């Protein structure tokens, strides 16, 4: 691609160079796996008989080896709104496979927990490591060596990264992600945010808050704010792992069904083709493209953790230096709630991911020449799907349908992607500047140090935080307690900021894709547990956070102090079962994974 931006070219070449040995080892492993497990003929008769015993209508086809057999790995449950539509998918997908002489089987299921349900609860401490459990579940599902391709049914926060990580260890097979789509738009985002802050101030009742939330999260489908779940869908498009344009089509529509049918037909068509394998699709350029899409759209900060982890599963080294350098070159061309007023349905109607990809390619801000599951290159994803009668087709997107939602790179909302690396004697952290008014990117104020978000809420309620303050919440890293999201902090800190105080958050925990208007240095590494700098901070220490200069520091003499330790009890809600994940986890910048670390990846 002749017009590729120089910074993107330089970062990509650095990622390729840094990944040289590990990527070569990964590709060698995938080639060995392809030779060892080319098809079901390598199974013994007893093994194979177990594999098709319950296949009923498809038994003769699987027994004879006639046509591709597709593995369905599903994260279906009917508590999680985004995944409830998947209940009907397997039966439909089996019919669509038969249309093209193929078969499909549900190879296995994975966990699918909802961070929206567990926010602020003890169960949230299982959330990040559910990603590793999902990867392991995916590997178990695919270990039967019965399959020629993989359909991955998952949408939300840890689920898509976990499916990617697990499926990449079977990267000799082609794989496609099959989304379910967002629920229809509920109440306005400003109204929802207003009720949340009123409740935080004691000016709205729990019944009023529940009514507001129920009007927002109200039906099957993905939550409509641009958090981690919808950022996942964007990244799958940028990496060429979807049927083009599948990300944001609502559940239960004829178009949604047609896209899923096309995914099954495509898997059947490319089964056995090494060029269509997931190992070839997810390469260094695809990972860089995912990061570019994240930055161009103001996506979830959680992917500063998930992208390095997904990359490692494919033998690729990608870190926060790469993300921050890309951010400086990639303009923000989308504003979706919480970074703007409209949700993902408005985003899709205004041109959506097809518009974003087309504009990025035109400006030389993304790699066109990636190998996609759909064939061709990324330009196939710069279109929007539609039904021409009964036929699935694609058409040009055209200009932005809403300049308050989508703009070209020549007239961006911000000149950079708004994901800034800040560092200093307090460690390295991520600062999502795209969600924060530039006048608040820099703050120097006394620290108020907490060991839990519940303690912050108590201090807010008693008025202790009514001043300029840097709220430090520590012992929230992966090894301490599983790195829960601290999204419950957004309303009280937002209230303090609205009262006129200079406020910031510094934490070794996460703030999620819903990170809002308060400046926040998150994912701080090294984490406090084990003697990281945050463990030596004290109330009153002056802390400086600056998104302009990329600084996170304190004037306090940390070296003269002994580190403090956490006091939280990590028993209950199954947290004790995840002790091995906590003990083995590596840093947030390396993906916060015990599984990858233990596997030598």
From TrEMBL:
Keywords: 4Fe-4S, Carbohydrate metabolism, Gluconate utilization, Iron, Iron-sulfur, Lyase, Metal-binding. Pathway: Carbohydrate metabolism; Entner-Doudoroff pathway. Its cofactor is [4Fe-4S] cluster. Belongs to the IlvD/Edd family. GO terms for molecular function: 4 iron, 4 sulfur cluster binding; metal ion binding; phosphogluconate dehydratase activity. Its EC number is 4.2.1.12. Binds 1 [4Fe-4S] cluster. Residues 405-592 form the Dihydroxy-acid/6-phosphogluconate dehydratase C-terminal domain. NCBIfam families: edd. The lineage of its organism: Bacteria, Pseudomonadati, Pseudomonadota, Alphaproteobacteria, Sphingomonadales. It is an enzyme of class 4 (lyase). This is Phosphogluconate dehydratase. [4Fe-4S] cluster binds at residues 156, 223. The keyword Nuclease does not apply. Residues 69-380 form the Dihydroxy-acid/6-phosphogluconate dehydratase N-terminal domain. It catalyses: 6-phospho-D-gluconate = 2-dehydro-3-deoxy-6-phospho-D-gluconate + H2O. It holds the Pfam family ILVD_EDD_N. GO terms for biological process: D-gluconate metabolic process; Entner-Doudoroff pathway through 6-phosphogluconate.
